[in-house]
Design goal:
It is a single chain. This protein has 751 residues and is α/β, with parallel strands linked by helices. It has three domains: 41-325, 3-Layer(aba) Sandwich (UDP-N-acetylmuramoyl-L-alanine:D-glutamate ligase), CATH 3.40.1190; 334-468, Mur ligase, C-terminal domain (Protein-Tyrosine Phosphatase, Chain A), CATH 3.90.190; 504-750, Rossmann fold, CATH 3.40.50.880. A nine-stranded mixed beta sheet has the order 2-3-1-4-5-6-9-10-11, sandwiched between helices. α8 (145-157) packs parallel to α9, α14 (410-420) runs antiparallel to α22 (737-750) and α17 packs across α21 (704-722). The radius of gyration is 27 Å and the shape is globular. 54% of the residues are buried.
Length: 751
């Protein structure tokens, strides 16, 4: 042991004692962080405590649940474990776990952040990496999914003996497996679960050839049995499968398969001697598994956990016993009992996670009270535009439901729910929901869904409340609340020639390619504000490969997208250049966000490649020089189109420059945020009735005046076209108190 290693251990021990005994704080990260500063190889030095092998669990959703259940199952088999159970998944958390492990253990079981795997895996040289899934998450921190994939591939290349166990139903995971020389084991679901689909998928395009995927069946998100219609890239052959799936009262399914790779790996470590498998061979599986936790994603989590446990020497019986008594105790599908009423708490931190939670809620029977909590701390990601990709519209189908919005960004959440057709009540704590529900009849069930940093406080409050009322009798409330679902607005005839058979047409160009930051929410806002005014409106979604006659469009929307998707959309738009240019020049109302905004100009850059734009507006987009990074932050503008400040979020690498005499959309007036480039303090472009901007959020949710500008221009154009003598003067006013509150909250933060 070197001096640096010894010093790192001593300092780590001191900081651990201080944090636990003096500051009364968990010592999950800091001791390891300090130790790594003293000895950057401390993980490698302390990994000698692990005598048999190790596994690292990565993926966007499910890491903590899978890691903790796996650790429980391995311990039940009589083996010892070192595990970062608290979810401290950076290299500092793994280092802390190893430093605090006394003596030796059989297995190291570690949850790892995807981007930080490259720092930990080469030191640990894990026996296995378990890759669960890859979804959009914290785009301001992680960037596009390509970056995450590259980080995982790099980590595996630095640990060539590590075996990759991966979810082959996810094409993004399959791409990772295809790019490494490591041995791989593929798992997936071998049947259609016939689940209702969400609006957003994170992998509709093949990363090999930029063709589009088609699915024999899709489970949720991009998970399913896929094939690229262009190059033929398809789901790999599955080594292990889940089948005969039942999703009533939890989940039950069969697991079958055989992987020679797994058998070889286990034999090399002597694990085959510890196995107790039905068919008598260490790599052969035929087993039935059941769990009480609800949700389709539980099937994938349990399948992955079972396989890992199987490879780590856990028998079928031992795994099922561990699953039967598994109590997460960390807010992941954790149930509390308060005065005889149950509250189900779960984490959701991205669209896919939220959508799966929404399905748990809507598929449950009975009356429901639901509280959502959203923070925007650094660990959450400052950008919460992703909430517009969550299918809150599913709640409208509920007959009896009461909805609450909490957390730091409760105002934004309230806006999103309003445009989903749900009137949410603002709350400061989960106890406010609990108190109200306890006054309701017994049949009302409670749910709390929280993102990353809001989860601990919600869990702590529910824990305290549960312990305080542990032996309290069932409260029999009588107050029947009013449903949160907003009443629909009847569509009426309009004096401007807009009728149900001739609606206002909102054309959404390429929602399958250009919807990276919840930009499609802008279309939701436009449609709802028309509906609330009794203006018949139709959203026309033009997907890749489809065509549209822009002469019939009243409002056109272009969102932003990753570079690959943006280029593909740009190529298609070049075929529409003449008609789109004519639409703009004839004062057509158009909103273009980020990548869509760039495409309208003369050129933009894809890496080092200069891509020709449509040249419909005199702007050009360049890459930053050396030493410059992406422009990422909340931002506030003053704009001639709004009396209130215009607020949003920017996340872009390109620097856009306006031509001589071209007007910006707005001036940057916030203390942070850049807009078009590093120096102009301007954002976007305003050309005729065309708005281009870098503001996500989406733009229109907290800035209703901009939405009404587009609707007004569309109505005026329709009036001119119909030669109606009743010239449009102003839109009827709406109650925008919810939108204004969200706007004012962010404006105050940005002053």
């Amino acid at each position: 042991m070197g001096i640096r290693t010894s010093g790192a251990k001593v300092i780590s021990a001191v900081s651990t004692w201080g944090l636990k005994n003096v500051m009364r704080r968990p010592a999950a990260n800091m001791p390891g962080k300090i130790a790594l500063l003293v000895d950057p190889q401390i993980i490698a030095e302390t990994s000698s405590k692990i005598t048999t092998g190790s596994i690292m669990v990565v993926g966007t959703n499910g890491k903590t649940t899978v890691t903790n259940l796996l650790a429980d199952a391995v311990e039940r088999s009589g083996q010892t474990v070192a595990c970062n159970r608290t979810g401290a998944n950076l290299d500092s958390g793994i280092a802390t776990t190893l430093l605090q492990t006394k003596g030796t253990v059989d297995w190291g079981i570690f949850e790892s952040d995807e981007l930080w795997l490259v720092r930990s895996l080469p030191q640990i040289k894990a026996t296995y990496v378990l890759l669960l899934n890859l979804f959009r998450d914290q785009l301001d921190r992680y960037g596009e999914i390509d970056r995450i994939q590259e980080a995982i591939v790099k980590a595996l290349n630095l640990s060539p003996d590590t075996i990759l166990i991966y979810n082959a139903d996810d094409p993004l995971c399959a791409i990772v497996a295809g790019q490494v020389a490591n041995q791989t084991i593929a798992f997936g679901v071998d049947e259609d679960m016939h689940l209702p689909q969400n609006t957003v998928s994170d992998a509709q395009m093949c990363q090999k050839c930029s063709g589009m995927f088609t699915y024999e069946y899709r489970q949720y998100g991009q998970l399913g049995k896929y094939i690229c219609s262009n190059c033929g890239f398809t789901r790999p052959n599955l080594d292990y499968v889940a089948k005969n799936i039942e999703l009533k009262h939890g989940a039950s399914f069969d697991i079958e398969g055989c992987s020679s790779v797994a058998g070889e790996a286990m034999s090399s470590t002597g694990l085959s001697k510890k196995m107790s498998i039905k068919d008598g061979t260490p790599d052969k599986v035929s087993v039935s598994v059941s769990v009480t936790q609800p949700g389709a994603y539980v099937v994938y989590n349990m399948l992955a956990t079972y396989l890992a446990a199987h490879f780590l020497g856990v028998s079928n019986k031992e795994f099922q016993q561990a699953a039967d008594v598994f109590d997460p105790q960390n807010g992941r599908l954790q149930e509390f009992l308060i005065e005889g009423r149950s509250v189900l708490l779960n984490l959701a931190k991205n669209p896919t996670g939220f959508n799966q939670n929404l399905k748990i809620i809507t598929q449950a029977e009975g009356k429901k009270a639901v509280a959502f909590f959203i923070n925007d701390n650094e660990a959450d990601g400052r950008d919460i535009s992703w909430i517009w990709d969550c299918d809150f519209e599913e709640l409208v189908q509920e007959k009896d439901i009461v909805v609450y919005a909490g957390g730091v960004r409760k105002n934004d959440l309230q806006v999103r729910l309003k445009y989903a057709g749900v009137e949410a009540k603002l709350i400061n704590s989960v106890n406010e929901m609990v108190d109200e529900v306890l006054a309701m009849p017994q049949e009302w069930k409670m749910y709390a869904i929280a993102n990353y940093t809001s989860l601990p406080s919600v869990r702590s409050a529910l824990t305290a409340r549960s312990e305080k009322t542990k032996n309290a009798p069932l409260r029999e409330g009588s107050h029947e609340p009013t449903s949160s679902v907003l009443a629909s607005v009847p569509v009426s005839e309009n004096t401007l020639g807009i009728t149900p058979d001739k609606p206002l047409r909102i054309v959404h160009l390429f929602p399958d390619l250009l919807n990276l930051y919840g930009d499609g929410g802008n279309v939701k806002v436009l449609a709802k504000r028309c509906e609330w005014r009794g203006i018949p409106a139709q959203v026309v979604s033009v997907r890749y490969g489809e065509s549209v006659d822009l002469s019939t469009a009243d409002i056109v929307f272009l969102g932003g997208g990753p570079d690959r998707e943006q280029k593909l959309a740009s190529e298609v738009l070049h075929n529409m250049k003449e008609s789109l240019g004519e639409y703009i020049e004839n004062n057509g109302a158009l909103l273009a966000i980020c990548g869509g905004y760039q495409i309208l100009g003369t050129r933009w850059l894809l890496g080092d490649e200069v891509v020709e734009g449509l040249s419909l507006i005199d702007i050009e987009t360049l890459r930053p020089g050396k030493g410059f990074d992406r422009l990422i932050d909340n931002i506030m503008l003053s704009s001639s189109l709004a009396s209130m400040p215009v607020v949003g979020y920017e996340n872009h690498a390109g620097r856009t420059h306006l031509g001589e005499g071209v007007k910006p959309f707005g001036k940057v007036i916030s203390s942070v945020g850049s807009g078009n480039n590093d120096s102009s303090k301007e954002d976007g472009v305003l050309y005729k009735n065309c708005i281009g901007t870098y503001l996500h959020g989406p733009l229109l949710g907290k800035n209703p005046e901009i939405a009404d500008f587009l609707i007004a221009r569309a109505l005026e154009n329709r009036t001119v076209q119909s030669q109606d003598e009743n010239v449009f003067e102003s839109l009827s006013s709406l109650d925008d108190s919810v939108e204004k509150a969200a706007n004012e909250y962010m404006a105050q933060r940005l002053k």
